[in-house]
Structure formats: C-alpha cells, structure tokens
Amino acid sequence: MKNLILIRHSKSSWDAPVQDIDRSISSRGVKDAHLIASKSVNIVPNSYIVWSSKSKRTTETAYIFSQYLSIPLETIHFTEDLYTFDDKKLYQIIKKCKNEHDSLILFGHNEAITNFVNKFGDLYIENVPTSGLVAMQFETNDWDNLGKGKTIATLFPSHFKND
Known about the structure:
Helices cover 28% and strands 21% of the residues.
C-alpha cells in the first residue's frame, strides 16, 4: 500500500512585486499553515519522505509543517519540477518515487493538486484551498502503478473556523 499526502502551499502574499516563484506566504497563510500542520500530526504515517516545490511559498509552508511533524529540514527534497500547475506532470513526478518508500508527503500547487485528487481519489473536491491537505491511499506496492485510490482525509482551514 502507498500513502500520498498532498499539501497545497499557504496563502500567498501579493505585497511585493516579485516573480510568482518568489512570492512569500501572507500572515493569514502563516496562521493557516500552523493550524493545519497542528491538526495533521495524527494523519501522517510513521515513516515517509517529503518533497516540495522550490517556490518560496511552498518552501515556507513545508518549514512550518516540519516543526509539527519533526521533519529534519535537510531531509526535505526541494525541486523545481514540483513548481507545476499540471496534474499530468505531477503524476509523472510522483511515479518516480522509489518503492522502498510507502509514504510520500508532497508540497505543491493548484490546479495540479485539485485535479490530481479528483482524478485519483474517490471524493470529489471542488478546490483544495491554500494550506489544504489531502491524504490518499493506493492499493499497490509500486508508485509507477498508481490507479484509483481512496481519499482518507482532508484538512482545510475552513473546517476549523469555529475552533
């Protein structure tokens, strides 16, 4: 069985005139990332690898989650390949995960994440929001053979508005 946890970067800041890849997360994004990271502790498997887009906002989101999940920063694999909005490209990247790893946590971008979870999960999600987390399981031992999986959890900031 393979476990995939997809996390969309936190809300971007539009305060500075920078290129898209260089945008930081906003103060709301920081707050939402801490909220979802704190709630994700019980969802994350015991062992996993972590991949993240190299964009500034995904990097900052991954750093916040690493505090709650005790992920050593040097173990996070940051790659420009994950700076994609295309679910087909995202799927090709996920398929490259080594089979020795049963669980992958991936920090990325929309439209890729929403389209991926709707194609491979069993729960339709209109839009995975910023700081949103979707956990999926696949009945396979080979990342290269991902088919239809099961959506086992969603954590979105709106789920905790009244907390």
